[in-house]
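Example 351.
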Amino acid sequence: MKKRKLKKEPLIFLFVIACILVYYLNFRSKPVDKSLSSLGYSSKEVSIVMKNVSKNDYKFIKKYDDSIINIISSRDYKKENFKKYLDYYEKNTDSDINDIITIINSDYDLMKYKASSLLASLVKEKYYIYKNTARYLDYTKEKDVSKIISIVNSKADYEFYTNTSVSNIDDGNLVLVNKFYHLPDKYEPNDLVTLTSKYNQGANSKLRKEAADAFMKMVDGAMLDNIILKNSSAYRSYDYQVSLYERYVKRDGKEKADIYSARPGYSEHQTGLCTDINTIDSSFANTKEAKWLKDNAYKYGFILRFPKDKENITGYKYEPWHYRYVGEKIAKIIYDEDLTLEEYYAYYVEK
Ligand SMILES: [Zn+2]
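Predicted structure in complex with zinc ion:
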């Protein structure tokens, strides 16, 4: 008889604990429940809120708005961003909820820009750079979002030869020289070497040591495929570029000369890192040598510097003969990702 009594006691004890627990949980959740219901949220909506919004954030819901439920139910919704979504939504009540979520997930500081599908597509792009946001949004000459990013990252939303700055020599093989970056006055590399006649057919036959070694290796490699490559023009001094550019301006006028020739200080040839190969003429594009270079130069650290259809990024028309040394590792990235040096530099160096 005594044994039975003893068995019942722990059960009663557990039952009492359970009652207290249920009462406690109920008591705690009731006010939220009630306040949301009193704002007009259905019981289904209330449970969505309670499941997906943290307790500290309930208080930010001050009126009935089914968009709040849409925000919470969205695929990319993140609990910790709830308050930011609400703030941004309040400023952009007409905008698409998914755009709002994408933009806030990307960067809270974007709140200062108006929510739009363009902004949402921009932040999803691989090469998007936050500090360029205003310029992306301002650039209206192009509709394609990835092209807008490429152009603006390359500064090519500015007019050529405006907003210029001095190239950073410390970038070594990656030094950027184009219509926005120019070399310091009278810059001359200190490790130029002369290519022998086996590798050269032009008057300007000097390259920086590392680039020269890579170039000779490439020429030797090409020869195994029965491809004959020779340098036609490599390092060009500042003074040489002055005479060249002046000659072109005299012949064709400044506007035309700027399309195919660089202004002094703005020529990549002054870096000692690039070479014009074989024929400096657009007909070169159709040769087997040009084809070989396009497919293989990156293996030796060279990139096709002014590719087809990238004129609005590089500032130069297609030059199938002009190759620039950047080193094997980076040449491969540029080749694989189909970038120009401008795009690579903006995203991987400057950013
Ligand atoms: Zn060239």
